[in-house]
């Protein structure tokens, strides 16, 4: 069902400061930096081998990332797995009793659909599916 790890999401207070760490110290260039109105966040993706690291700076305290930052501070927010057919995967997981945050996938960019699984069903880890 899962093809590979697509990315690991990390919430940061200051994306510009985090960019200095990843670009300057780690020597990794971002493949994408953008503002997501839907997530109310500023986001940067860094390719690392076959995987990516997603840095997420909340732009709104009431966004999902903003609530996470307020409650837990900076750190790993979620793990994302690549899937071939996200809606088929969601249906199968629901039939297996996995609690879904998103019953249907949603479009985040022109060529990408995502959905989240409830951490209550995934050993406390927020899990994202990406197609």
Overview of this structure, please?
- The protein has 131 residues and is an alpha+beta fold.
- An 8-stranded mixed β-sheet has the order 2-3-4-1-5-8-7-6.
- Strand 6 (106-109) and strand 7 form a beta hairpin.
- It has 3 helices and 8 strands.
Q: Please give the count of helices.
A: 3
The helix/strand series, from N terminus to C terminus, equals EHEEEHEHEEE
Structural class: alpha+beta
Number of strands: 8
Helix coverage percent = 10-25%
The gross shape turns out to be: globular
List the helices and strands and how they pair.
Blueprint: E1 2-11, H1 15-25, E2 32-36, E3 41-48, E4 51-58, H2 64-72, E5 75-83, H3 86-95, E6 106-109, E7 112-117, E8 127-130
What would you say about this model in short?
This protein has 131 residues and is an alpha+beta fold.
Search tags:
about 40% strand; about 130 residues; alpha+beta; eight-stranded mixed sheet
């Amino acid at each position: 069902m899962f093809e590979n790890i697509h990315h690991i999401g990390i919430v940061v207070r200051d994306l510009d400061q985090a960019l200095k760490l990843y670009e300057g110290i780690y020597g990794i260039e971002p493949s994408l930096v953008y503002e997501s109105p839907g997530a109310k966040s500023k986001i940067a993706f860094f390719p690392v081998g076959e995987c990516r690291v997603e840095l997420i700076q909340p732009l709104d305290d009431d966004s999902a990332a903003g609530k996470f930052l307020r409650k837990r501070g900076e750190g790993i927010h979620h793990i994302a797995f690549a899937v071939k057919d996200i809606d088929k995967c969601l249906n199968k997981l629901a039939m297996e009793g996995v609690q879904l945050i998103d019953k249907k996938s949603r479009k985040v960019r022109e060529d990408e659909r995502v959905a989240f699984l409830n951490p209550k069903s995934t050993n406390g880890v927020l899990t994202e599916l990406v197609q």
